[in-house]
Amino acid sequence: MERKQTRTITVGGLPIGGSADISVQSMTNTDTRDVEATLAQIARLEAAGCQLVRLAIPDQAAARALHSIRQRTSLPLVADIHFDYRLALESIAAGADKIRINPGNIGASERVRAVADACRAKKIPIRIGVNGGSLSCEILARYGGVTAEGLVASALEQMEALRRFDFEDICLSLKASDVRMTVAAYRLIREKTDAPLHLGVTETGLLYHGLVKSSVGIGALLLDGIGDTLRVSLSADPVEEIRAGIAILKAAGLRREGVELIACPTCGRCRIDVEAVAREVEEKLAGLKTPVKVAVMGCAVNGPGEAREADYGIAGGDGVGLLFCRGEIVGKYPQAALADALVAAVREGVSDV
């Protein structure tokens, strides 16, 4: 499906929405008040491909620390604000590129106005983040609990709270831990607004199950043409969120950067250790930016065809393998030399390695 056209917002120079590429973000899990630890994690995230990063701002000390962090990184910074509107104002003054709030939990309308006015003055967008665990009692009563319709109603009501003060530079997210509910909410909201949408399934759990749930939910929406930026929320190292987000975009055909590694699932016909060779190739080509398709195949059934269709590939035989470059057989190597031969061929043929 063609991607839903949304309005464009700009976060520290990064466009989100409209025709801009879908961006990948994460959130630090350090104590924001620990400037050095937070900067070290931001550097790791940026090296992994993170395009914007969110920081928790639980108190004024964290808001003040944001000023120091802002001076020492160029990555766009999102201040995560709950309950105290003054923390949003302090974060804006400290150099935040975006504010994430729930207008419903920061108090009276004059407080919402204060945040909207401060963001407008600095041309800073606001993300309204609606979660299944933070719906108002009124919404829960109206919709009989946490539902997709309730998530949408909450997002629209909170967006209207900002629009009353002529603030339109808004991004929306509607996340639940239930994948089907999350997908349904985003599909509903797509028909009701042209605000850019931040995708994610929240509280997905540890790495393995979190990756599965996030891939199903985010992937389904991306294939529907929904989404402008995303976070894969995991109870894990935030760098894993970036790796997962990039991999999901690649699988959906929405990012063509670096190595696309295909490898057979292995079976009793394999005559080489596909997993070991594939892992070695992946590690040695990590960091590659030029798009390239690399195949590691284990036997003569599908191996030669898949390897020939890739830019570079190997097809295993009895302890040996054929090396293919751009569809042509260029060599035969023992298993111990296969990974090095494949990596060398890629390095020779690709400009940025």
Overall SS class: alpha/beta
Distance between the termini: 35 Å
**What topology, given as strand order, has the largest sheet?**
8-7-6-5-4-3-10-9
Q: Using only CA atoms, what is the Rg? A: 23 Å
Proportion of beta-strand residues: 15-25%
Please tag this protein with its features.
353 residues, 12 helices, 42% helix, elongated, five-stranded mixed beta sheet, alpha/beta
Task: Report on this structure.
The protein is an alpha/beta fold. Helices cover 42% and strands 20% of the residues. The protein has 12 helices and 15 strands. The chain has helices at 35-48, 60-71, 85-94, 109-122, 137-143, 148-163, 179-190, 207-223, 238-251, 274-284, 303-309, 335-349; strands at 9-11, 14-16, 23-27, 52-56, 77-80, 98-101, 126-131, 170-175, 198-199, 229-230, 259-263, 292-297, 312-316, 320-325, 328-334. β14 and β15 (328-334) form a beta hairpin. α3 runs parallel beside α4, α7 packs parallel to α8 (207-223) and α10 (274-284) packs parallel to α12. The longest helix has 17 residues, at 207-223. It is elongated.
Give the helix/strand layout:
Layout: E1 9-11, E2 14-16, E3 23-27, H1 35-48, E4 52-56, H2 60-71, E5 77-80, H3 85-94, E6 98-101, H4 109-122, E7 126-131, H5 137-143, H6 148-163, E8 170-175, H7 179-190, E9 198-199, H8 207-223, E10 229-230, H9 238-251, E11 259-263, H10 274-284, E12 292-297, H11 303-309, E13 312-316, E14 320-325, E15 328-334, H12 335-349
Parallel strand pairs: 3-4, 3-10, 4-5, 5-6, 6-7, 7-8, 9-10, 11-12, 12-13
Antiparallel strand pairs: 1-2, 13-14, 14-15
Helix pairs in contact: 1-2, 1-9, 2-3, 3-4, 5-6, 6-7, 7-8, 8-9, 10-12
